[in-house]
Specification:
Length: about 800
Amino acid sequence: MRLLSLNPTNYVTILIATFLLLLHAESTRPPFACDSSNPSTKSLPFCKTDLPISRRAQDLVSRLTLDEKISQLVNSAPPIPRLGIPAYEWWSEALHGVANAGPGVRFDGPVKSATSFPQVILTAASFDARLWYRIGQSKNEVRDLTKNACQIGAHVIGTEARAVYNAGEAKGMTFWAPNINIFRDPRWGRGQETPGEDPVVTGKYAVAYVRGLQGDSFQGRKLGSHLLASACCKHFTAYDLDNWNGINRFVFDAHVTQQDLADTYQPPFQSCIEKARASGIMCAYNRVNGVPNCADFNLLSKTARGQWDFHGYITSDCDAVSIIFDDQGFAKSPEDAVVDVLKAGMDVNCGSYLQNHTKSAIQKRKLPVSQIDRALHNLFAVRMRLGLFDGDPTKRRYGNIGPNQVCSKEHQALALEAARNGIVLLKNSAKLLPLPKSSKVAISLAVIGPNADSPKTLLGNYFGPPCKSVTPLQGLRSYVKKNTLYHPGCNAVNCTSVDIEKAVGVAKRANYVVLVVGLDQTQEREDHDRDHLALPGRQEELIAAVAKAAKKPVVLVLLSGGPVDLSFAKYDRRIGSILWAGYPGEAGGLALAEIIFGDHNPGGRLPVTWYPRDYVKIPMTDMRMRAEPSSGYPGRTYRFYKGPKVFEFGYGLSYSAHSYKLSSAVQNKLYLNLTSSGHTDAESSDSVRYHIVSEISEEFCKTKSFSISVEVENQGEMEGKHSVLLFVKRDKHTNGGDPIKQLVGFESVKLNPGETAQVEFRLSPCEHLSSANEDGLMVLEEGSRLLFVGDEEYPIDVVF
């Protein structure tokens, strides 16, 4: 063949171009170890995929020098070139979509954005566990699902996370979500990140999200050792105050009773570990009863790893190790802080404290190297489960997941569905909604308010660049294209300045008015708790003036994470409808418009209690859940709060009415003859017989499980999804602090007009009819209960 002759200039140009192409190829290549082309490492035991992961991790740790070991104890772990191990970033975020809020993910290659779902508090309002799973779910698990409308193929956060990694735009596959702390106080700036105030809802959300993200089936236990992505349940434990009245999360000491720990703060984490099999936990900044969470051996090792059988890694929150010495004064030196957290069972430090002070702790003989080895074993085992020590991951189990699977039509459709199903209709006087959309009825529409056209507000916090963004104004204009008027009303959400004259002028020119107000991240966020429950600034003044001037009662839309006291609007006849839309994500504006114009029947329910504004008299630092009437303390959440409410937990209207009928095969009596199984009845001070649940065998609890069937009928003229919430309450409260009522199950069903469905709840007396005593033990008492849905009740007696 004839060789082309090249002049020196062309030759240099080609060399540079070739180098740049190779550089680009390397930059888009995901980082991994055990490259098959590297003869020095491919034969080492830690690279052999046929060996158990435990043995591989042990082999790898045994090959590291002390300095190399210490270097791996922080979130930004450097490479170990001599073993072909790349750098790894433990900190990535995926609260409601893959985000670039942490250093682990960047959108600087072929993937420029990711599907942005509603903020968690709104997603939780759907009370639809299958929806929660689908948001985190892998496409590879779609085949395991039955072919009904609730389970259509959607491969979202888990799949998009892997796609970003395969595209070379992520330095790790460990995502620090979900946030499963209890939304205890309505002022908490991070309550928006959680599934709400109920431990059952929060626990089920944790299970659904973790199974979906990690690539497990909806039912669980099909995952094996492989992880699509790694989920991390946070913040362990009793963390729900950021910065209030001069007290911040770094120094706060949460005084929590054993009773409240047992039935409120710990159950979501127990579900996350035992049922979801999460591969990560994050210990929180705060202390609980004097002990920093990250330095609590009883919490991390005895409870999580011992009692709940946790197998995964435990990370600190960022700089949570340094504050143990620097801010809390719990440790006497930096080395003591390092010793405290590693001996407690923590594995990796978000920050640099362990990198800076661990060697000194060893040299001073305060810390054995075996504690570092234990932590590294957990860390490398998770990286191996992610397939990052199996050679090129793009040629392995999840290697076919590419950029084309991010922001797909199916994913964006699910984001819209999640927003639709979470939005809560709080008021609909004289059936103002839905508004007419017939072409025969010419309408004009005024859209007023500081949140009407703010794309960023839709996303809440911990978000990445969304695939698209539809604001409420844009969504409403898609229905009323020619006659939609707009005015923001306020200078910003804080509404320190309001232009009532112009807003009123716009309202007067329209047939219908939609006001879009509420909060944003300037009002509630991480490190910023609210100090009141009212709307910011002069928003209420704006609403009142516009409602007075409008031709018809107005529609009020509230964007917020935490609850707001809307008592003024609830009882104002000029405000015909109220919708709460949380922070509804990239498709939130379209979802709102579809509900307002009747293309979707709202079915969301509040996942938190909405309190009156004087609730703020209670210090946020008071962690007590149970009411103490003698001291004037009203309690917290629907389970214990004894005071007036603006809207109740579980409240939500629909364009359809629904009816219920309850039935069960147990016929009102549940006989639990535990004495025949060798158990002795105990008796409380109130002469009520009881048994400690932990002393009852799992087999006995299983055999005594029973079913409650709820017949639900759609009595309206619109199809829609409806959430059935089953509660239990005691006829007589005997156990010093029984909940007023407790959610024991929920299910979302889709019903056509006039259609009836049977919803079955399988209940275990040990799990669903027990309660926590003052010692923090779950006990099953003899006596009467009422199971109820809405106003329909079913009495059941537990008889020993």
